[in-house]
Structures are given as C-alpha cells and as structure tokens.
Amino acid sequence: MTAVQSRAESTITVHNPATGAVSGTVPIDEPETVAAKAAQLVAAQPEWEALGPTGRKRWMLEWQGWILDNADRITEVLISETGKSHVDASLEAVATADAIAYWATHAKEFLADRHPKAHSPIYRVKRFTTAYRPYPLVGVITPWNFPFAMPGLDVPPALAAGAAVLLKPSEVTPLSAVEFVRGWAEIGAPPVLGLTTGYGETGQAVIEHADFLQFTGSTATGRKVAVACAQRLIPYGLELGGKDPAIVLADADLDRAANGIAWGGLFNSGQVCVSVERVYVEAPVYDEFVAKLAARVGEVQQGQDGDTGAMATEAQRDIVARHVDEATAAGARVVTGGKPTGVGTYFAPTVIADVDSSMTCMTEETFGPTLPVIKVADENEAIRLANDSPYGLSATVWTADKRRGERLARRLEVGAVNVNDALVNVFCPGLPMGGWKESGIGYRAGGASGIIKYCRQQAITTPRLPTQKSELLWYPSSKRRMAMTLAVMRAFAARGRRRFGLRPRNG
Ligand code: NDP
C-alpha cells in the first residue's frame, strides 16, 4: 500500500501508509489552472508589498495564532497522510509558528534600506541606497517528509519579504498543505498565498510562472528543477539530499552520544534531510558505543502513540530494506532491528555494525530509521571518510572537548555542524541552513539573508548637492574635462607615485 494509491482522472486520493485508510483527495491541477492561480497571486502582490513589513507582520502573526489554535487538527491531518507518530507530527505546527514569528518580527530590520558609503571621495556627492524589492511570485515545492513544517520553513520568509507565494506540496502528502493555506484564507489575509496540487507536471508548471523557485526534495529532481529554472533565467534555492555523518570521539560522553545519535537518526523514522545517516566511532570506544546505541535504539517504540512512526511510502521502506540487506550480504552485522515489521510501512529501528565505506548504506541516502556504524582509527580518518561523499548537508561531532569539536567542525565539508547535539540548527532561523556540494544551492534561513534571498536588490543614487545643468562626462565630450576626470579618479584609486601618473621609483 502506498500513500497515494490511485490516480483518478482529476484527483489524487491520499492514504495513511500506516493503516491504508483513505485520508482525503485533492485535485490534480492542469498547467492552465496553475497559470490562472499564478496570475491571481501576481495581481494581488503589489498591494501586499505596499503594506510594508509592519502591515504584513499583523497578518502573519494572526496566521500564526490560527495555526496554534488549530495545532491539534493539523497534527491529526499530518498523521493521516504520513503515518507519523503523534510526537513526531505534533512538532510541525508549533515549529512553523515559531518560524512565522521570527520572520514577521525581524522583516522590518532585515529589509531596511542600506546606505553604503561611497568607495571613493569622487562619489561623495551622491547618496547611495540599496533597496530590497520582493520577487512578485515565489514558487515553493515541498516534499512529503514534513508536509506542514517544510512549507513552514520557506513560505513565511517569502511572504514577510512582500512576495506572493504559490505552494506545490508533494503528491504523497498534500492535505497538510491544504490546512497551511486554509489558515491564511480563514483569517481573511490578502490573497497572496495560493496552493496548487498534482504530480511533477504541476510542479513544472509552477516553475513556468515563478519569479523565484524554492525547492526541497531529492538531488535528482533538484537537478531537473535547476535546469528548468535556468531555461527561464529565474533564480532558485535547492535543499536536497544528505548523508549526514556523526563522529564519536573517544573522549565523548557515550551515553549522550548514543541518545543524541539515536534521536538524530530515528526522528520522523529517519525521513529527515539532516538526519544522522552514518556513524564513525574512534576504535577505543567502538564496542562500548555500539552496545549503548543498540540498547537505546532497541527501546524505541513504534506506532502512532510511540516514539516514531511509519515510512511515508512503500517505496521508501523498500529502499531502507535494500540498504540493510546489501550491508548484511557484504558482511555487516545487524545489532538491532533490520527488517520491516510487516505492519503498514513500518521498518524496525536498526543499528548495523562492522560496516565498510563501500556499502550502499554508507554511500546512498537511506532516508530511514537505520544507523550504520563504522570503526575509525582516529579523528583524521573520521574526517576523511565523513568528507568522502557527494553530499554536504550537515554533521554532528561528539566530544568532551568543545574546542576540539569546533576545530573538527571547520574541517567538515558540510553546511552545518552540531557539537554534542543533533538537528538543533534546523530550529534556529538566525543560522544559515544550506547544503554544500550536491546537497543544495542557496541558504534557506540565516537571518537577513534568509529574507533578502526573496528580494531583488535595487541600487538607487540621488544627488546630495544642488543639481547642475551638466556633468563632467556628459556631452559635448571634451578632452580637457576627460583628462581632468581621469586624473582625479587615478589620484583616489592608485597608491604612491602612480597617483600622479608616474611609475614607482624601483619599478
Ligand atoms: P522528489 O524530489 O522527487 O520530490 C520532491 C517534490 O518535487 C515533490 O513535491 C514532487 O512532486 C516535486 N517534483 C517532482 N518532479 C518534479 C519536476 N520535474 N519539477 C518540479 N517538481 C517536481 O522526492 P521524492 O518524493 O521522490 O523522494 C525521493 C528521495 O528524495 C527520497 O528517497 C529521499 O532520499 C529524498 N528526499 C529528500 C528530502 C529532503 O528533505 N532533502 C525530502 C524528501 C525526499 P510529486 O511528489 O507530486 O511528484
């Protein structure tokens, strides 16, 4: 049973992958429908931009209130289309409310005009302004692993910037996005947040009309999205796959490391772009750590009322099973778990020991509740193996020495490193969130740059002095004025004798 079982002519039927129950239906929008929705959003955008950050903040905080008031219902909808546990699902509405507050309250400061100083005295006669003007329509394409929180990461900063947004959720989990957009409509906010549902073709149609495209999903689809954006010459941000390493050093608190890595690897059944996907442990503590990790993972309860839930699709469960089977066939040892439970799309939380770096569980994104562990001689080997990946999303380092942790962080080729913790950076929009290498392009958050990315920067110059009839370089051209202008520019740009058109004495 997959989450999306049937494709009627014009609707998608959504199923709960844990039980097979039908959860709802959404329309499949044809390209003409997407075009019409985009046109309506673009028509409404100028008024939204004109409200300014303070006017927009009012609507965004009202929307935040609606989300918090409806958090229980949103959680139920999430469970019904993902098979998540209640604890995993309940985080999404509140985390989204937190992000909305951040962008709504900081937008005024982040979008304020900047007035850069003139780089040369010649230009001090001008007042310089950098203004931030939103892209009219931002397209946001989101995956199925966090159907409410993923739009919650990308839509609020775009709205706060003054853009209109057209959201296209995954075909597997569109119902939470319906709630996300319903909240905006129910508070009576300006019609600048729209929803379009359907398959990949609907996503392609969004790209056809967007002025900026923010995408989260697989590296393979991200590449296609990048090509489509390049053809239209529109900018984009991509948040893609990962294979995040954890490095456990011999001086680490092994109980904390085992607890943190278990959570970082199994949260949301491992269907997190930044989940811990491979673990490197220094040899002296390898056996002890594997035992502690296996004990922790073995205690994890699955089910709607447990710690963690089902996989979002059968296909995803099958990838996890393949990675485990290929590892054991090549000599790795399953310490706990290792199999689908046989119920819905559940896969038992798994620890695999004695893994080697060539196994698919170490090279391909698993996106499931598995923790393959490998023994390393020292920190240098750990760093070398951790960096030996096409992905570069995030990593964790576990050590009693915080300085050593930070030092190792700076040697890792990834966009984020948590020392003695996991996933925490994702909940902090003041920090950049962006994948290096094949894990993405652009930064999703990160304070001012997380909102400025949804803006076109505009340079404005205005005279400081009373205006003249003409300027030095204007027509009619004059050799004398040109020579004078060049001499002044040279005098301010160059150093030493070159300022006066002379060569250096020793030159
Ligand atoms: P995809 O990357 O295929 O899908 C992500 C989103 O892109 C969905 O909304 C999808 O719509 C849409 N889409 C698909 N094709 C196109 C296209 N040509 N143009 C525009 N939009 C398109 O992810 P999958 O669901 O297939 O997952 C595959 C793998 O990706 C997983 O196994 C996992 O490894 C990784 N993944 C990574 C995530 C992350 O957070 N970095 C999140 C989810 C998955 P639709 O679903 O309707 O086809």
Description:
The structure is a single chain. This protein has 507 residues and is an alpha/beta fold. Helix 2 (52-69) runs antiparallel to helix 5, helix 3 (71-82) crosses helix 4 (86-111) and helix 3 packs antiparallel against helix 6. The strands form five sheets. The protein has a seven-stranded mixed sheet with strand order 12-13-14-11-10-16-17, sandwiched between helices. Helix 6 (175-186) links the parallel strand 6 and strand 7 (193-195). The longest helix is centred in the first third of the chain and has 26 residues, at 86-111. The chain is 41% helix and 19% strand. Mean pLDDT is 96; it is low at 1-8. The relative contact order is 0.13. NADPH dihydro-nicotinamide-adenine-dinucleotide phosphate binds at residues 141-145, 168, 170-172, 199-200, 203-204, 216-218, 221, 224-225, 239-241, 273, 316, 319, 365, 367. This is Aldehyde dehydrogenase. It holds the Pfam family Aldedh. Residues 1-24 are annotated as: Disordered. The active site is at residue 239. InterPro entries: Ald_DH/histidinol_DH, Ald_DH_C, Ald_DH_CS_GLU, Ald_DH_N, Aldehyde_DH_dom, Aldehyde_DH_NAD(P), Aldehyde_DH_Superfamily.
Describe the secondary-structure layout.
Blueprint: E1 4-7, E2 11-15, E3 22-27, H1 31-50, H2 52-69, H3 71-82, H4 86-111, E4 126-134, E5 137-141, H5 149-161, E6 164-168, H6 175-186, E7 193-195, H7 200-209, E8 212-216, H8 219-232, E9 236-239, E10 244-248, H9 254-266, E11 276-282, H10 286-298, H11 314-329, E12 333-336, E13 350-353, H12 360-363, E14 370-376, H13 379-387, E15 391-392, E16 394-398, H14 402-409, E17 416-419, E18 436-437, E19 440-441, H15 448-452, E20 455-463, H16 479-493
Helix pairs in contact: 1-7, 2-4, 2-5, 2-6, 3-4, 3-6, 4-5, 9-10
This protein binds NADPH dihydro-nicotinamide-adenine-dinucleotide phosphate.
The site of NADPH dihydro-nicotinamide-adenine-dinucleotide phosphate has 27 residues, from helix 7, helix 8 and helix 11.
